[in-house]
Amino acid sequence: MSLIVFLLIIASAFLHALWNFAAKKVSGNFQVIYLSLVMASALLLPFLFILPAAEVFNPRPLPYLLATGTIHAVYFFALGRAYAYGDISSSYPLARGTGVGGTALAAYWLLQEGMTSLGLLGVAAISIGTLLIGLTHSQPTGGLKGCFFALLVGTMIVAYSLIDKMGVGITHPVVYAFGLWFIAALWLTPYVLLKKRPELSRAWRDHKGSSLLIGAGSLSTYLLILFIFRIAPVGYVVALRETAVAIGALMGFVFLREKPATLKIAGIILIVIGMMAIKMA
Predict the structure, then answer these.
(1) Distance (Å, rounded) from C-alpha 179 to C-alpha 97?
(2) Could you tell me the CA-to-CA distances from 49 to 54, 64, 169, 255, 262 in Å, in that order?
(3) What is the pTM of this model?
(4) Which comes out higher in pLDDT, residue 176 or 141?
């Protein structure tokens, strides 16, 4: 893996940890996350006017966009629930880490992506490290519910990573990202307007800044990944991106005063080892 690609994935991991930290700060407020999807779509819309019309109106990626938009709607809903029930240093690694090994295996079987022995070792180290971080719960109330939704998020990560690897290969990443966020927001709109309108008004009044940070952060993070998907194996990209788990756990320790534990420290060390192994692979 080239140094430029490696550094771009690490930058994406940092941005990912940052917006997930902001999501936890509002306790996974679903209305805030919904507003972030709308804001992310609005931020991308002007860029569609400067791209060639053939790119913007290309119908080929539409099946992929419908699939990934639906999956991301489930992903963001489950993410909000995971953070509402669990702490970030436990929910975050379970949500992200369960997708690492699953994506690598699925990419091997479905996309015929091979791995070197060193790369496989790196993926395994990151997978084990993320699970170790998530095994210790510093917030027992609602822990099982938090684990369930975190694992659901991990399942969605495997699904959308494979779909997006294929979809972004036939369209511009900016167009693909806009369609992804727009469709995800569209799926969630009826539920929000029918069931959560008062809460949506309060979220807009009190948390516009958090919504913008989450929207811009998730958008910039995944837009980087979509560009990288075009030139690097999805198994390596998803695994290396999970260095965000270590960053997120450290943020939880430092800023949210979540209790450190031996397993979490060991997990962070394993993630760093896995990161370096994938870089050398």
Answers:
(1) 26
(2) 12, 22, 21, 40, 51
(3) 0.82
(4) 176
